[in-house]
Write a structure and sequence with these properties.
Elements: E1 2-5, E2 9-14, H1 28-39, E3 47-50, H2 69-72, E4 77-80, H3 85-93, E5 99-101, H4 104-108, H5 112-118
Parallel strand pairs: 2-3, 3-4, 4-5
Antiparallel strand pairs: 1-2
The protein binds flavin mononucleotide.
Residues 1, 15, 50, 52, 80-83, 102-105, 107, 130-131 line the site of flavin mononucleotide (FMN).
């Protein structure tokens, strides 16, 4: 997945261990070390690496510590996969990423940033409406009610 950032630079996302749609690599550690080193030459706006799949060992290929890719990435590094506010703040404090991206929490909470800011409760995501298309489960979760 490639995202445009401004008009001149692009950011890029890698999913080293994500087994979605039967993706599998025989040696993801070697493949993604090679890829990140190669991408370092391109002055990317950011490199976004999802840790998705690391919790399902072996499905996407032999497991390795995806977080290591941060150490060889020479640019802005965004992590993702199963983070909540506390876990995200912890990786940022430890400088294990420059930013954390949220998928499901944002899907279920269109005002996620304000909820984090206020330490408000989050809507519970409904997995049954993932990947089905249409707007249900994508654009109809409620925002916080004004007090
Ligand atoms: C409904 C849904 C659709 C998604 N579609 C894509 C996609 O098209 N491409 C992709 O790389 N990741 C996709 N993802 C994965 C998310 O980008 C994210 O990596 C994943 O949900 C883990 O992050 P999270 O724990 O913050 O949700 C999707 C996730 C969900 C729940």
């Amino acid at each position: 997945m490639v995202k445009v950032w401004g008009s001149e630079r692009v950011g890029l996302r890698l999913s080293p261990l994500n087994p979605f749609n039967d993706i599998k690599d025989s040696d993801p550690q070697a493949t993604f070390y090679y890829a990140v080193n190669a991408l370092n030459l391109f002055n990317l706006a950011y490199l976004h690496v999802t840790e998705m799949g690391a919790e399902a060992p072996g499905l996407g290929g032999p497991i390795f510590n995806v977080k290591e890719l941060r150490d060889i990435c020479q640019g802005i590094y965004i992590t993702n996969g199963g983070y909540d506010k506390t876990k995200a703040n912890t990786v940022l404090e430890k400088n294990e990423a420059d930013a954390v991206a949220f998928g499901v929490p944002y899907l279920a909470n269109p005002d996620l940033a304000s909820r984090f800011h206020k330490d408000a409760k989050l809507n519970i995501p409904n997995e049954k409406t993932f990947y089905v298309g249409e707007e249900k489960g994508y654009t109809d979760y409620p925002t916080m009610s004004p007090r």
